[in-house]
Structures are given as C-alpha cells and as structure tokens.
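The following record pairs a protein chain with its ligand, iron/sulfur cluster.
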Amino acid sequence: MRQRLFRGGIHPFDGKGLTKDKAIVSLAPGKTLVFPLSQHIGAPCLPQVEKGQNVLRGQIVASPSPGSLGANIHSSVSGVVKDIAPRPIIGGRSMAIVIESDGQAREVPFVRPDNILSFTREDALAAVAAAGIVGLGGACFPTSVKLDAPPDPEPAVDTVILNGAECEPYLTCDDRIMREYAEDITRGAALMRRFFPDARLVLGLEANKPEAIEAMRAAAVETGADLEIRVLPVMYPQGSEKQLIYAITGRSVPSGQLPRSVGCLVQNVATVRHIFLALIRGRPLMDRVLTVTGEAVANPGNFRVPLGTLVSDLLEAVGGFAEQPGKIIAGGPMMGVALGRTDVPIVKGTSGILAQTVPMTLGAPEQPCIRCGRCVEVCPMGLSAYRLNRLAVLEDYDGFIEEGGLDCIECGSCSYTCPSCRHIMQCMREAKRTAAARRKANKE
Ligand code: SF4
Ligand code: SF4
C-alpha cells in the first residue's frame, strides 16, 4: 500500500520513553471528586441529583437537556453530593457536582445485555448514549451522536478509522490500551458494524508502537474482526482527524466540513474500547486511562483514574514530584493546556498530565516575525500562520476568517518551529474562539 503523507508536520522530541513500558495501574478515588457539567462538546448537562443526596458509583448525576448535544455524566464513586456550584476546571470554570466519596465503591447494578446479536441499531445507539461516552482523544464529541449517521447519508460512511496514532509527545496511554486491551478494541471495532455494516474498518497507528501493532494484529486474528491495520510514518500531527483520513484514504476533508463529507468516521481506540464495555458489559464511562509524565514527575506512568479526581490528588497518589515543576500541563506539550492550579478535576477528555522541570519551561522571549516562512512550511492545514498571527494581533477577525483561520487545528507545529519564539498557536486558539463567537453573533 502506497504511504501517503499529509503536507507539513514536524518531528518534536517525543518523550514517550518515560512511560511507554509502564503498564496501566488502577488508582483508588480520593475523598472529594468534582464532576463538571461541561465535559463534552455541546451545552452543559443538567444535574440529576441534589445537594445532600446519596449516590452510587455508576449512577447518572447529570444528563443533557432534551434535544441538546451532550453526554450523561456518571459518578465514579459512592458517597454524598456535597455541593453543586461553579468550580475551577481545566481551562476555565464550570458548574460542577462535588461528591464526597464514602470509600465503599457501592455500584448500581450494571446490566449486561443478554444477547447483543438481538440488538437493533437503535438499541446499540441508546446503550452508547446511556453510557455517556465521548471522544476520548480529546475532542469530547458525544459518541452516540457521531455514530448516529442517517441510514443513507450522502456520501455513505464507507470507512471507519480507529485512531491509534497518539502522535502527541509524552502521551502513551493509547499505546498501553492497545497493548493491554487489544481484544476489547477489536471486539469494539466489530461492534461498529452495528452502525456501519458496509464500511471497512481500518486502524491507523504510527510505526513507533511495535508492541501495539503486534497486539492489535494478533487480536484481530483471534477475534475474527475484519480490521485492517495500517502502520503510518511517525510525523506530528499524524493523529489529527483530517491528517489521519488523508493518510489512510487519500481524501481531503473540505474546509468547515466533517469527516462524513468524505465518507469517513474516526474514533479513538480508547473510545472504541468503551463502546465495547458499554455494549457487552453494560458499564458506563466512569474512569479513563491517562498518562502522568514529565521530567519533574517522580514516578511517571499510565493510570486508570476515576473521573472527577482532582489533579492534586492524582499527583499525590502517583508519588508527587522529583523536583519542583516549572509548568503543569493537562494533555501533551503540543496541544495541552497549562494549569494555573491543580485543584481541577480529571474529565473525560483528559489524556495526560505533564509536569516539566523549570529549565525546560524557560522559553526565550517573543521576538518580531522575520518572515522566514517556516511556520507556513510545517502547517498541516496549509495556512499562512504568520499572516494569521498578525491578523489576530490586529484583532482583524474578518480577515482572520477570510484567510482560513478557523481551519487551524491548534496543533502547535508553527509555534514549535518559529525561530522568533512567537506564541502563534496560543494566539490562533484565542482568535478562533473570538472570531467564531463574533460570526455566530452576527448571524443571530
Ligand atoms: S497551530 Fe494552526 S496555524 Fe499553527 S501549524 Fe497548526 S494548524 Fe497551522
Ligand atoms: S516561523 Fe516565526 S518568524 Fe518565521 S515567518 Fe513564521 S512567525 Fe515569522
């Protein structure tokens, strides 16, 4: 098969050696857990519990309002609701349900379907929706909505891509999930046929995960899943949806369009495993596997963490710091969000916590653009990053939109490569929010 490579891209230091051989360890919940009502794309959920109410692990504590985009939120502990109030979260503030654990992990009875073969497509969609699954690669799009393609969309979805690329430096949780739960993933992939019976199933992952490649190949044979395994060159941001689709199918998703427009659907491998857990074991999304890493962390590794766990509790549970961190990031170094505080909860989209040492975070000051064009060369979306950066600084949002600024996938390749240390991606991220909000307001 001919290898296609998307345009642009970079080879940052990958830092994966810190954790890629660390098996997943399950962590017990802390005393206080926080469940933000906004942890998916769409409107915030509505609380389904009241202050003072006792809850069980696996109980729905918040649900999307009728007709809105969203996903159920389940408690990851048994205990009592202590508060429903605004709380700091990664990247801002949100209304949240605060639950104090009783340490007993009393669960709701999880109902395993008697016979998945008797499930209709609607039954399967309802089970995925009830489980509160969202895209665990960070996009947080409600999975049941993504799977609910009209029976005859134009064009039909003919390719379902499992995203195991995990191109973000330092993060290895998807690698470990593929190595340790390969059969769950292949069975989950087979279940995708409930939604797209005629589509081909392709797993895309980078060549730097040889153990995962072998595990997934063996599991595909063992389970009889008709899953094509496509090993891709190591290039950041290979795991970005549009770049992955191009690498696997040669199709380019047009500006402003979804993968469906080119007959594709992409699901992260951890998401596919949770589809399996929901449909076969009746288990909702209550925890997730993430990577805690960085040169400042005493014991980097991969951990299964109850959702709602505070980052401070998580860091303490894994042994704290080897040295004073200069910066703590939710996610990876390229696309992650710097944390100003650690009393914020792990949510569905948190794939990692990275703590860098002080010397690693002492960046050189921003300098004026020298028009070297490197940011343009590496941009996988073909954008003139330096021009967009200038338009954003000038607050020319109409110009920003005309130049394609909303197509920016916030990969950070431009910032990484800029010799003038310009904070292009951060600037793009803010400009995109402002430009999109203004465009929406102008339409109303
Ligand atoms: S952050 Fe945006 S502008 Fe910069 S390289 Fe990535 S897609 Fe291009
Ligand atoms: S890489 Fe930096 S200095 Fe070079 S053109 Fe882009 S913004 Fe300007």
